[in-house]
Design a protein that fits this description.
alpha/beta; Amidase signature (AS) enzymes; about 10% strand; globular; Amidase domain-containing protein; hydrolase; amidase activity
């Protein structure tokens, strides 16, 4: 062996070729072995799609005004199709509290309101593909609510309000597939306590909504259900993993939605779709009977919450469930501490802020959202102070924190995810992400990436990508140490917060506005700005403050004074993802200390009150706006502006919207 000197005699190009060609062969072998189409699940997939289509057709018939003529279950004049449609439109134009009031006062019944929302949701779903399955019991629930009401039984506070359910929540009798064929035909035998509690309060779950394949992404797309579009721009994602929920509510197809958040899964879709949400501290609203995405996850708080249009709606729903004794009967692990009423006060606050987390800069529109919000709050008399992540602890620079976060996301280095994706077709928008996870399980590929590829990537392509690529727990001791370091960092965070003496923190909601479908798989670095607050397990809410404007795009493309990429390929991709985003929702994130949800809501209200907010999407009756298509012409694909008007909505503060303590159903 000592006489073999071919390596030293080869030129640099020959050496490079000798490394590249085995890698190409390995790639082709892995692609052949790993990417199988459904396998033994093929027949189950076909059976599911048949059942799904049948149920969609049934719900379309149950909500079709032409089928509801003279149906006594429909109130407010059911004698003509036009009258029924007008009733439905009036219902759908109401805000949450107005609709709630009219249901409580018997101006509408549960069946009519459900039919209206299903009528709209079916139309919306045909355009943006946000619903995975209809809940067949929904109309039966509505009929029973109306019968009980006629019999004099008391109404729950959510009587007759239809809501959608993220499809990772268990509902008895329904599969939880997270977009994977292997989980079909394995219906759950329990219902998630959060869903059951809302049913007990009179709300009606009527559909399950789309998620990313395997949940761990912010593009809601999978081979089983397809790709969900953002209602603001059909060429972009609504985010994930709760993307189907956010898309449906933003499109006006539900009265509110529910979702989970492990690294931004509530907040990213809220930011992309112009909605309000709040991720509580994990144990303030503990929820079981869901697919959490990563069983045995590291130090990441898994939170659950709501999608609403306003902060007031958010406060009402959280106040209803948090600490409620009836919810504690369903889920005793949840905190018994009730959410206290947030007082309307002119007391001034001290608010921290940052626009750069030190790891991944945000594009100019998202930076402007924070700066304008801080200036507006300052003009209202609040004090502000800059929060510098680099000063939290000298032992934890932003890249160290990011490495720690990504190791917490996959404490097993992706082994669970790799197994989950086995024998499944890869979603077209997630192929890169899935391949990297699966290939890294192999000894050869893992070490090639670690010792050869990632050092080159860090020097030549992107130090952020290298940070993600090298985030690995080599053994159990390293995993334990990373979790201990996480706990230490939390203490440093709280001490720095106390040193500044701030009440809340305002920062960017994400690194870009809503992205085209192909970018999330390449921009996992963006999850740092949201996942950080899961790792800290603190309340974090999102409030829309303005649309992206043309000046934001001009600054984005100004390399000298705008968004500097400095040769970083990931930042170049980020800049590409934010192009042509004018008019899309632009939000900020509001953060407080653990278990301080009341303060988070208070600051979210202040932000909502002092900023412009977003217009609202309202469905168009396309029959009246589309010219007839010639018989020999292929109709063009619909766009967001074909389907939705952008309407200005005056923010209304509803009196008596908080929970009355005298109501025995709410104590």
């Amino acid at each position: 062996m000592g006489n073999i000197t071919f390596w030293t005699t080869w030129s640099s190009s020959e050496r490079l070729f000798s490394i590249i060609w085995p890698a190409i062969i390995l790639y082709l072998i892995m692609k052949l072995l790993v990417e199988k189409m459904w396998g033994k699940n093929r027949e189950a997939v076909q059976r599911f799609k048949t059942r799904r289509d049948t149920l969609f057709a049934k719900f379309e018939e149950l909500s079709n005004p032409t089928k509801l003529l003279n149906d006594e279950r429909i109130v407010n004049d059911n004698t003509s199709v036009e009258n029924i449609e007008n009733t439905f439109k009036r219902i759908l134009e109401m805000d949450f509290f107005e609709l709630k009031r009219r249901l409580q006062e018997d101006e509408y019944n549960a069946y009519t309101v459900l039919a209206a929302f299903v009528w709209r949701a079916n139309k919306v779903n045909r355009e943006i593909n946000c619903i995975t399955e209809m809940i067949k019991e929904a109309f039966d629930i509505a009929e029973k609510l109306d019968k009980d009401n006629k019999d004099g039984k008391p109404k729950g506070p959510l009587f007759g309000l239809p809501f959608s359910v993220k499809s990772n929540f268990y509902v008895e009798g329904y599969d939880v597939t997270v977009g994977l064929g292997k989980y079909l035909e394995k219906p759950k035998t329990t219902t998630c306590p959060m869903v059951q509690f809302l049913i007990d309060q009179g709300a009606i779950p009527f559909c399950l909504t789309n998620v990313p394949q395997g949940l761990l992404s912010y593009v809601s797309s999978n081979p089983l259900y397809g790709t969900t579009k953002n209602p603001w721009d059909f060429s972009r994602t609504p985010g994930g993993s709760s993307g189907g929920e956010a898309a449906l509510l933003a499109a006006g197809g539900s009265s509110f939605g529910i979702g989970s958040d492990l690294a931004g899964s509530l907040r990213i879709p809220a930011a992309f779709c112009g909605l309000t949400t709040l991720k509580p501290t994990q144990d303030r609203l503990y929820v079981t009977d869901t697919h959490g995405g990563l069983p045995g996850r590291g130090r990441l708080g898994l939170s659950f919450g709501f999608y609403t249009r306003t902060v007031q709606e958010q406060e009402f729903l959280l106040s209803l469930i948090v600490g409620n004794k009836n919810y504690l009967e369903l889920c005793p692990m949840s905190s018994p501490a009730r959410l206290e009423k947030v007082p309307d006060t002119n007391e001034k606050l001290l608010i921290g802020w940052f626009v750069d987390d030190g790891f991944n800069p945000v594009v100019p529109s998202n930076r402007r959202a924070v700066e304008e919000t801080i200036n507006a709050l300052k003009a209202q008399g609040h004090e502000v102070v800059e929060f510098k992540l680099s000063e939290v602890s000298k032992d934890f620079d932003p890249f160290t924190i990011a490495n720690m976060l990504f190791r917490n996301v996959m404490p097993d280095n992706g082994a669970y995810m790799a197994e989950m994706y086995s024998n499944e077709p890869y979603d077209k928008h997630m192929k890169l992400f899935i391949r990297l996870i699966r290939w890294k399980q192999g000894f050869v590929v893992r070490n090639l990436l670690r010792f050869l590829v990632m050092p080159i990537v860090g020097r030549c392509i992107s130090k952020r990508l290298a940070c993600i690529g090298t985030a690995r727990n080599p053994n159990l001791a390293a995993c334990r140490q990373n979790q201990e370091n996480t706990d230490i960092f939390k203490l440093h965070w709280i001490r720095y917060w106390k040193k500044l003496n701030i009440d809340a923190l305002i920062c960017p909601s994400f690194i870009t506005p809503a992205q085209p479908f192909e970018y999330p798989a390449e921009l996992s670095s963006g999850a740092f700005i949201t996942g950080l607050f899961n790792m800290l397990d603190v309340p974090a809410g999102v409030v829309p403050v303005s649309p992206v404007n043309n000046d934001d795009i001009k600054v984005l493309n100004d390399e000298k004074t705008g968004f500097r990429v400095n040769g970083d390929r990931l930042l170049e991709k980020q800049r590409e993802a934010a192009q042509e985003s004018s008019g899309l929702p632009n939000s900020v994130q509001v953060v407080t200390l653990p278990n301080c949800e009341e303060m988070c809501i208070r600051v979210m209200k202040a932000v909502e009150k002092t900023t412009d907010g977003m217009k609202r999407l309202q469905w168009k009756d396309r029959r009246t706006v589309e010219p007839p298509v010639a018989s020999n012409t292929v109709p063009k694909a619909a766009t967001s502006t074909d389907c939705f008007e952008r309407i200005s909505v005056e923010m209304v503060v509803h009196p008596n919207s908080n929970i009355p303590s005298s109501n025995p159903l709410l104590t």
